[in-house]
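Supplementary Note 3. Input sequence used for the single-chain structure prediction.
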Amino acid sequence: MIGLLVTVLVLAVAGAGFGWWTVQRSFPQTSGTVELPGLDAEVTVERDAAGIPTVVATSDHDLFAAQGYVHAQDRFWEMDFRRHVTAGRLAELFGASQVPTDTFIRTLGWRNVAEQEYAALDEPTKAIYDAYAEGVNAYLAQRSGAELSLEYAVLGLQNPGYSPEPWTGVDSIAWLKAMAWDLRSNLEDEIDRALLATELPAEEVARLHPAFPFGSMPTIMGGPAGAAPAVVGEPVAIGGSATQGAPGAASAGQVHTDAPAEAAAPDAQAVAALHELQATLAEFPELLGPAGGEIGSNSWVVSGAHTESGLPLLANDPHLGPALPSIWYQMGLRCAERTDTCTYDVAGYTFSGMPGVIIGHNDRIAWGFTNLGPDVADLFIERVVDGQYEIDGVRRQLSERAETIQVAGGDPVEVTVRSTGHGPLVTGLTADYERIATAEGEASGSSEGELQLALSWTALSPGTTAQAIFALNRAQDFAGFRQAASLFDVPSQNLIYADVDGNIGYQAPGDIPIRASGDGTVPLPGWTSANGWTGRIPFEQLPSLYNPERGIIVTANNAVTADPPFLTADWDLGYRADGIERRLAAALDGGARLDIDEMSSIQLDTRDANAETFLPLIASLELSGDAAKGAAYLDGWDGHADVDSGRAAYFAVFWRTLLDEMFGDLPEGTRPVGGDRWFSVVGTLLGEPDSTWWSDEERGVAGRDAMIADALARAWAESERLLGSDSAEWRWGRLHTLTLTNQSFGESGIAPIEWLFNRGPYELGGGSAIVDAIGWDASLGYGVDWVPSMRMVVDLSDLDGSRWVNLTGASGHAFHAHYTDQAPLWQRGETRPWAYSADAVAEASVDTLTLRPAE
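The predicted structure, written as discrete structure tokens, is reproduced below.
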């Protein structure tokens, strides 16, 4: 018996040791010396206590080669997984289950466009991508299999023959297409409107998709609702006007109809196909997070007139889907001495797989991003006969290309992609998609040919974003910033700006179509050029601000301006922007000045405008039973969704219950997720107490007050079920949790594998359409679906004093010390300093790796 126990113990210890060796063998070398072929001179990589590197080199070539090497050290599996997604090659890794995803991506042709963009690069930019690839490949030459990352050991269980191929510049550029796809505009809204139209009249569909409230919510150019317009001249409003005008007005050279032709409600077959398309979009790999109305970001900048230092402060927290590792990788890129051949001194958040810094600052300027969200994708119904499509009565040959999808453990799959002048035919993916086109075509009066859907999307044309990042990294003033922005075509972003001379600014860049008719909210017939795109909005017409008189610029995916040019009909409705404006106004009341702590505090604001709307009404109702208990419990609540607030938890349950009771009979796929759109819809209905939306025949409820009372009572019972009978112990964080999930293996369904790579749950406050935008989907539950993926506040008076935090950590290696070391800080709303100047970097350094040219 003793011998048996000893044997079992020895085997257990050996197994644990082997497992730990397997895990640790992929951890990178962060000190000492490594030879890197192709370098011209030595490069140093200094890491601070969080493992965040600052790379110092003597040439641009060496700087970006080292960036590629360091990215590969910490994140190569992430890079490899991403490039398989963007090339439509997931089936090579995971087998036949990924063929539908690969087919969809091949149809869109991300990799093809990336190849064209790479070929069109100017030589200096191409040299950067090539140098970066050299660094990645130097790392691949040193390691293989599980030495690269633990994921390769797991992958080897099902795909033992896989070995990563060399990295290329095209691999990097293709990632921009994933960014553009995840930050696309309103395809989901178009599907939602079509499904709602099957059961509701047009006016009710419009009610459920409210327009931006220009009279009551802030715009980027105009500031708070009702504020005086910015001065034109000096300060400057470039491009779009800073005053508010009638929404939907047209600019010179652009035709926009305020009332586009309405499509008839699709038939039952089309409804089924719409649901399938909706499901396809939902299952598509979303590398930046969930698409649609809830994805967003906050950024704002204040001039020195409002700060303690007398120089600007700039804040940014992009809201994306949570992922492990985080979408961001923090890094500094510095030339030891600025020369003609070494031109960078920049720091901030990067994407692994991409050279350069996406968001951050250099020695003179800082910048941040939020999603602009213009409508850059349209569906066109095409009439196809014998391999030809029709345009203005003339038949033209469809263009075709063949794609071969390699499948791990299976036979290759051949795919033929067909396109019209509008774009690829997405109806070629499944037979059900053809029913969408048929139904839409019948509604449009077509009677000839096979009807299919083509997708027009600006990201399917070669662009210049691949060059924009480096121009932005080198920019020294607002003119250079705008020049870089002019290259940033896809995805369109709100860019905010500040510099060490005290200037602040804003620019809306992007490749945004001009439509011959319609506003992009419904599919239109493609066989007439009357419905096509006639061009792009010139950069000079896109909105821009420089040193606005009020000294504040706030962007939170809200409308830029009511004035032309027309950008989209589907803006974020402004609740977060209004919350930021309120906090700034309160902080500056009486002539006070902002500091970096106050800017960080605003990022963590949990005020729930939706709760504030309901609380006075609930308090005024005559209630009994559990509804009265609920109202009494909410009495005195300040409406903040803090992590330890039981009232926030109960209100969330009430809100979800109310949405289900009011809108639970809507067509599948259109039910409320919560957030800004539904805040607006229900908030408007509160002023219509006798609306039929307040009736539920099945429950015998009629009228606003009766339905609210019923929802309060049901929510009380549900809260007791979820949180226990003692309401004093309720906490929002017990319902509102985040599990950080590995993008590739984190949802494998195999518990031991998920345990290896996932972390959490983390209890959180905040919520949807709240400044601290830790959002949740009311159609699914209370768990966290999108988050501030990082938080940053840059102090232009002291760049070393700026504050930063990442969602997870620098490392992509499970069980590494920096895998999730920043997650507890992020959870608590804390940020950390990050050294920028050479002296501060040296002082903060805990590890120094020297990369030297190979002998």
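Residues 60-86 form the longest helix (27 residues). Residues 559 and 828 are 31 Å apart (CA to CA).
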